[in-house]
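[Discussion] Sanity-checking designs against the backbone

I'm trying to build intuition for which residues belong where. Below is a structure token string of 561 positions. I'd appreciate it if someone posts a full sequence so I can compare it with mine line by line.
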């Protein structure tokens, strides 16, 4: 069988029965990785002689009466290579059971309900493993539908219904959004075992274990104690486990399953990742099916967040401000109570998760922008709708005389989209694009550049901070305030410059750095520029003095504007 249901017909493991089957809620000691082929009810120890390998042994009667009987039954189960021993609670103490399970490498399970009822349930699951896994998927589908569009509740359902399996939601940058904080993503793991042949010489083998529902290598689990296999061989685990496992833990082939969660814009919102340890080829396949069921509510969660935010500019503004504030927070720096990102706060309530749901970039290379009204002030809420419509899913927050934010686009592409944006604005606007920076921690630098570029840009134009020169900076001077002192500085020249030719020539020479380029700019001969410069110097200006040149250049730009 191939496809998403590959391996579903494989025998269920003891861990599966405890994690999501008829033994849910039972206390398990040992790895639980042996497959269960059948169930045998044992009321006397003498019956153990007929117990076949991979049998789940359910103790009742005298076989379960007292700690001594349970201990002896566990030892006999090890001799018969049984899958596990199930005993009623109250017999062998659980502390002693844990030690015994580790020492013998036998999975020991204590149940609170009637062992006979448990035996019937296990027999049904073992006889129809695919049906048992289908029931798990159906139960998860129901609970996921009830969870609704909430990342926290969806991940809560997955981690509750798939115990022994860690599930997390990573954003498109590979960082945690919701669910388990860490999930092992091993790819292909390798397990070493020692298989003793008939000659008694150990034959060390190393086999890859699949992470996509394939059959992992058959590995007996124990603490250096051999366990008998069906073929009569004796296998030893090469590495002693660090301790017994509860509910599906222990030593085994590591696996992971990943499912992409699509974004509303056709991209990738994030990745749903599950990982754990299991010898069952059916369990990872079933988990992957459950993960696919969670894609729809997670996509709906992102849509809901985007819709909620799109209706309220104040929410988007506050979110952008929180992102910038969090970006300036030093790693490990303590936060104030109630501050975003506080441990214990709902995962999807964090600024980062909300931004990802909205499609905002929060990692990698970022470029800031600023849109500035050049006449009357515009409506912030309307700008918060029009700017993303032209630029893409970007934050919009009031800044300075306009609205600013950042994008993952490069400065050139962002400038082109801002040009289109300015044509849609109902009032005259200019825009600026900052330099490209890495991550939100540096975006403030780009925002400052975008603000300066927007200030020098004329109505309907976009200026880029990485292409701003002296002329653009001088053009940003407040002419209304500086006109009077500029007139005073240039008064001797203005007295002899009847048509403004000398003022224009002086500005061109200072801007271009010489007479030749000034002549090209003004479209006259170089000798004409030289003659005019002589008249300017005769008015009392020393053009060889750096301070004088700076004052004259500033004054020329103020008056010419």
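Best answer:
Here's mine. Compare freely.
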């Amino acid at each position: 069988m191939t496809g998403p249901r590959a391996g579903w017909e494989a025998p269920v493991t003891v861990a599966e029965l405890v994690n999501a089957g008829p033994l849910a809620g039972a206390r398990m000691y040992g790895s639980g990785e042996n497959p269960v082929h059948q169930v045998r009810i044992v009321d006397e120890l003498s019956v153990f002689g007929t117990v076949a390998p991979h049998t789940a042994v359910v103790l009742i009667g005298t076989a379960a009466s007292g700690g001594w009987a349970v201990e002896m039954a566990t030892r006999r189960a090890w001799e018969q290579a049984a899958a596990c021993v199930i005993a009623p609670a109250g017999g062998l103490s659980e502390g002693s059971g844990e030690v015994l399970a580790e020492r013998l490498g036998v999975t020991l399970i204590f149940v609170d309900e009637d062992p006979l009822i448990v035996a019937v349930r296990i027999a049904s699951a073992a006889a129809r493993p695919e049906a048992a896994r289908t029931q798990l998927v159906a139960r998860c589908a129901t609970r996921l539908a009830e969870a609704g569009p909430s990342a926290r509740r969806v991940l809560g359902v997955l981690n509750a219904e798939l115990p022994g399996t860690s599930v997390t939601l990573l954003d498109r940058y590979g960082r945690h959004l919701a669910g388990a904080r860490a999930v092992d993503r091993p790819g292909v793991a390798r397990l070493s075992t020692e298989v003793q042949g008939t000659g008694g010489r150990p034959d060390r083998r190393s086999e890859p274990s699949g992470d996509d529902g394939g059959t992992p290598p058959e590995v007996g689990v124990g603490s250096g104690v051999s366990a008998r296999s069906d073929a009569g061989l004796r296998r030893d685990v090469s590495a002693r486990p660090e301790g017994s496992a509860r509910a599906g833990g222990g030593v085994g082939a590591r696996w992971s399953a990943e499912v992409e969660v699509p974004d509303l814009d056709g991209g990738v919102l994030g990745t749903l990742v599950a990982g754990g340890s299991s010898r069952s080829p059916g369990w990872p396949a079933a988990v992957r099916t459950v993960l696919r069921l969670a894609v729809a509510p997670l996509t709906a969660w992102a849509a809901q967040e985007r819709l909620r935010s799109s209706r309220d500019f104040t929410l988007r503004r506050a979110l952008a401000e929180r992102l910038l504030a969090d970006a300036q927070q030093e790693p490990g720096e303590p936060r104030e109570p109630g501050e975003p990102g506080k441990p214990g706060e709902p995962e999807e309530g964090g600024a980062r998760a909300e931004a990802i749901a909205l499609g905002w970039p929060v990692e990698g290379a970022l470029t800031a922008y600023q849109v500035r009204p050049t006449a009357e002030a515009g409506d912030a809420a309307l700008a918060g709708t029009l700017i993303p419509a032209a630029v893409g899913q970007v934050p919009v927050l009031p800044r300075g005389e306009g609205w600013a934010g950042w994008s993952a686009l490069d400065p050139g592409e962002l400038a082109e989209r801002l040009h289109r944006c300015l044509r849609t604005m109902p009032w005259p606007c200019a825009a600026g694009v900052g330099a490209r920076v890495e991550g939100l921690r540096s975006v403030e630098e780009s925002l400052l550049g975008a603000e300066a570029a927007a200030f020098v840009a004329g109505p309907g134009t976009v200026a880029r901070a990485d292409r701003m020169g002296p002329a653009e900076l001088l053009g940003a001077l407040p002419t209304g305030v500086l006109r009077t002192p500029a007139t005073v500085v240039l008064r001797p020249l203005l007295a002899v410059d009847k048509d403004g030719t000398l003022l224009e020539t002086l500005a061109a020479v200072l801007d271009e750095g010489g007479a030749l380029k000034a002549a090209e700019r003004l479209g006259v001969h170089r000798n004409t520029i030289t003659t005019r410069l002589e008249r300017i110097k005769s008015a009392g200006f020393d053009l060889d003095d750096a301070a004088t040149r700076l004052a004259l250049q500033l004054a020329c730009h103020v008056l010419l504007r």
